Amino acid sequence: MGPEIYVDMLGDALLLVIILVCAIILPSLAVGLMVAVFQAATSINEQTLSFLPRLIVTLLALIIGGHWLVQKVMDYTIRLIASIPSVIV
Predict the structure, then answer these.
(1) Would you state the pLDDT for residue 14?
(2) CA–CA separation, 34 vs 42, rounded Å?
(3) pLDDT of residue 87
(4) pLDDT of res. 1
(5) C-alpha distances out from residue 43 to 35, 39, 70, 84, Å
(6) What family does this belong to (predicted)?
(7) How does 19-39 read in b/e, with b if 16+ C-beta sit within 10 Å?
(8) CB contact at 8 A, 75 and 18
(9) pLDDT tens across 13-44, in order?
């Protein structure tokens, strides 16, 4: 019952955070890249042109994937609470 359990818990938490952040950020990153290529091709340098599509895609990712995101957090929380007896002993 050494520090391995705590390291595993921390590793699982960090992996969960990385997965959840990537689910939100990657679609926004793809849209931002497409808008940047469009701006470079047309020489349009308007700041709001790059901001608004990324904002909309991020909100859509949260709306569409929100249930999955909450389910992942709940599963991790349930596993964490279930592991309390093995950590205390």
Answers:
(1) 97
(2) 12
(3) 82
(4) 61
(5) 11, 5, 41, 58
(6) Belongs to the FliQ/MopD/SpaQ family.
(7) ebeebbeebbeebbeebeeee
(8) no
(9) 999 999 999 999 999 999 999 998 998 898 88
pLDDT at residue 70 is higher than 70 = yes
Query: The pTM is what?
Result: 0.79
Q: Torsions phi, psi of 12, nearest 5? A: -65, -40
Look up residue 73 and give its amino acid. Answer: V
CB 24 within 8 A of CB 61: yes
CB under 8 A, 24+ apart: contacts of 23-30: 23/61, 23/65, 23/68, 23/69, 24/58, 24/61, 24/62, 24/65, 24/69, 25/58, 27/57, 27/58, 27/60, 27/61, 28/54, 28/57, 28/58, 28/61
**In the chain, where are the structural domains located?**
4-84
What is the per-residue pLDDT across 54-65, written as a single tens digit (0 to 9) for each?
A: 999 999 999 999
The type of residue at 87 is V
